[in-house]
Backbone:
């Protein structure tokens, strides 16, 4: 786009600007169902072409004035008749709104300004060999020019400066200061800041000062023709003048200053528009984009189950075709339920998105109007749209368990499909309890029961047991006096912890602390208890070059997980490695130095790495604590962004928990009801959060 036009502007650049004007007029044809107006615009375009190719210094000023004049004509939705022998326009209005806009602009002088701006511009007159003394201009029978062609009431044009620009149209009516920011809506005078007080000092008449952009905000009183309305009766939702305010009809009603009300509503609309455009609408868009992913995920699982059944069916041949078909039907039914749930979610989103778009368009239109009645009637719907439709998740995916073929027990040998379970997240996760502890740098938490939890802190060798009321039930000091790197509760209810500095894993049973394992050449970081009763321990080598996960049964090492199939390390070296076993027996490891959560199977094979939601721009991801719930979801805390990520067991992002006022979340655990416990490192609090319906 051409930003600056002067005598150095090339003919091709002028043509480019002309083409843009033509495109604008073409795009707005549907708004102007008036052949005569189209003919007029065509004639003006022909003139513009002539002026655009002139070689004088002010060629583009002429072009700009004609273009602005065209826009003014289109604005009033009017029928325009014109005479070919002279520039005579007869305007017939097709709507009340267009007429009201015209009338308001006529009263404040805008119509006259536009006409004089076009036809008294010196370079334009000179192109015809004329001067301002050679023409007369009238508007509704009122002469805008003196007999000699000089301006009568539009002083801001009489300089006839050949370098005069469109941006210098309006001046203060008292001191000629250009671009005055204020306007008296009763006296119809433009005022600079310095002249406002002087204007108000004239107490012989009323005044109402408004920002220039809001001129015309005070309508004429419908009951008192000599008065203007400077207040709004909010009870009746109509503008009222000072005489109306004291009348019996409105004396007991609530009134507000029109300007203050207008600006307050505009601020609200601007905030709502920004909130809708930048926050709410993008969330709906993101939710809509996740629908195909959910469909694909459902389809993937259905195909996996169907394939397994097919293999078993081929082995059993025709004897079990009937049973196989019956089980396929079960899968199809479950698939249909899932698709139906997705369709309901999609319908809710599709139904709401057009409403949001319409509200955005309405807000933009309201922000452009000065009609106080329309603006005052605005009611915000932002809170209505803020909460997305409830998300669902398949929390218990069907599985197929094949058996050996036995004709006598053929139905039982085929196996069975587990029940389909669909759960929904809460729209807004809820904080159920806020437990205050004595810890300063609170990191680890582990549930002993639904009502009791163990905690441990950085630089503190005391492990503490609290109830949900924040009462300290028990405290245990580490055997070595070092602070525990991590803690976990075993299936039998005992507490285990790692001592990084003396290389040990320890068991607390009653008042006795037993050292289960002492490592050689390695130091333990974090640990967790598994469904089978084993311990998984993350550790690094003394030279900080190697890391691994080791499975222990009691004090016996059963498994070591360190390398992928290409012989490369699965985990990086460094601090802040936490782990948890999922219900499908996957091992989920927070690898802070890799900006990832690494998930391996029970056999130690890499399944996936999660580095943040794929639908958001790539940004830093520094996970800390981790846990899993009964639905197979993986939850991890993002310490620096004060939020919790939730992904499913396949690594698909589900949602954030980020609106609970969390401050530097670290350790995580869940109870038997899938309530989440989160430690806040610097606050020393544990928050209990409900996130499922």
Residues:
């Amino acid at each position: 786009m051409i930003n600056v036009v002067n005598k150095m502007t090339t003919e091709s650049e002028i043509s480019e600007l002309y083409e843009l004007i033509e495109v604008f007029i073409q795009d707005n044809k549907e708004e102007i169902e008036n052949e005569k107006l189209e003919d007029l615009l065509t004639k003006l375009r022909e003139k513009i072409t002539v002026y655009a190719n002139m070689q004088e210094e002010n060629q583009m000023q002429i072009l700009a004035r004609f273009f602005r004049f065209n826009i003014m004509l289109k604005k009033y939705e009017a029928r325009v008749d014109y005479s070919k022998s002279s520039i005579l326009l007869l305007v017939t209005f097709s709507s009340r709104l267009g007429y009201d806009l015209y009338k308001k602009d006529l009263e404040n002088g805008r119509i006259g300004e536009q006409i004089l701006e076009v036809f008294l511009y010196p370079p334009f007159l000179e192109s015809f060999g004329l001067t301002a003394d050679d023409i007369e201009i009238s508007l509704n029978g009122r002469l805008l020019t003196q007999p000699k062609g000089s301006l009568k009431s539009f002083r801001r044009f009489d300089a006839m400066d050949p370098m005069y620009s469109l941006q210098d149209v309006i001046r203060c009516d008292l001191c000629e200061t250009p671009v005055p920011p204020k306007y008296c809506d009763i006296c119809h005078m433009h005022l600079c800041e310095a002249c406002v007080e002087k204007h108000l000092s004239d107490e012989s008449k009323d005044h109402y000062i408004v920002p220039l952009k809001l001129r015309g905000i005070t309508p004429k009183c419908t009951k008192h023709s000599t008065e203007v309305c400077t207040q709004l009766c909010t009870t009746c939702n109509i503008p009222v003048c000072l005489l109306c305010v004291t009348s019996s009809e409105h004396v007991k009603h609530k009134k507000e200053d029109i300007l203050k009300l207008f600006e307050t509503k505009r601020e609200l609309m601007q905030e709502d528009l920004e909130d809708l455009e930048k926050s709410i609408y993008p969330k709906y868009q993101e939710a809509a984009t996740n629908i195909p992913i959910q469909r694909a995920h459902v389809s993937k699982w259905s195909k996996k189950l169907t394939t397994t059944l097919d293999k078993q069916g081929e082995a059993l041949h025709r004897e079990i075709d009937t049973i196989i078909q019956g089980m396929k039907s079960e899968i199809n039914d479950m698939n249909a339920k899932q698709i139906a749930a997705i369709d309901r979610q999609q319908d809710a989103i599709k139904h709401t998105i057009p409403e949001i778009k319409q509200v955005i368009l309405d807000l933009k239109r309201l922000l452009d109007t000065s009609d106080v009645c329309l603006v005052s009637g605005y009611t915000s719907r932002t809170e209505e749209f803020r909460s997305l439709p409830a998300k669902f998740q398949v929390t218990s995916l069907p599985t197929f368990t094949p058996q050996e073929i036995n004709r006598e027990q053929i139905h039982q040998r085929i196996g069975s499909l587990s029940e389909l379970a669909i759960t929904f997240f809460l729209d807004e996760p809820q904080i159920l309890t806020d437990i205050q502890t004595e810890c300063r740098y609170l990191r680890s938490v582990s549930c002993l029961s639904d009502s009791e939890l163990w905690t441990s802190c950085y630089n503190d060798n005391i492990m503490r047991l609290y109830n949900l009321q924040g009462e300290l039930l028990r405290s245990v000091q580490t055997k070595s006096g070092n602070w525990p790197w991590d803690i976990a509760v075993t299936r039998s209810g005992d507490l285990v912890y790692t001592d990084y500095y003396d290389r040990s894993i320890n068991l607390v049973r009653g008042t006795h602390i037993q050292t289960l394992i002492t490592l050689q050449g390695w130091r333990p970081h974090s640990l967790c208890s598994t469904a089978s009763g084993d311990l998984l321990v993350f550790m690094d080598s003394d030279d900080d070059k190697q890391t691994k996960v080791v499975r222990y049964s009691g004090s016996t090492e059963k498994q070591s997980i360190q390398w992928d199939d290409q012989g490369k390390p699965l985990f990086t070296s460094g601090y802040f490695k936490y782990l948890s076993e999922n219900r499908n027996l996957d091992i989920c490891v927070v690898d802070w130095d890799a900006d990832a959560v690494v998930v391996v199977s029970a056999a130690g094979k890499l399944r996936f790495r999660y580095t943040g939601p794929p639908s958001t721009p790539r940004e830093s991801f520094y996970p800390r604590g981790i846990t899993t719930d009964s639905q197979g979801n993986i939850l991890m805390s993002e310490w620096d962004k004060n939020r919790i990520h939730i992904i499913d067991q396949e690594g698909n992002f589900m949602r954030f928990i980020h609106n609970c006022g969390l401050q530097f979340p670290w350790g995580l655990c869940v109870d038997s009801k899938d309530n989440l416990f989160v430690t806040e490192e610097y606050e020393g609090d544990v928050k209990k959060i409900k996130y499922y319906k």
Notes: Confidence is low (pLDDT under 50) at residues 1-7, 29-34, 82-87, 147-169. The first strand starts at residue 78 and ends at 83. Residues 266 and 367 are 6 Å apart (CA to CA).
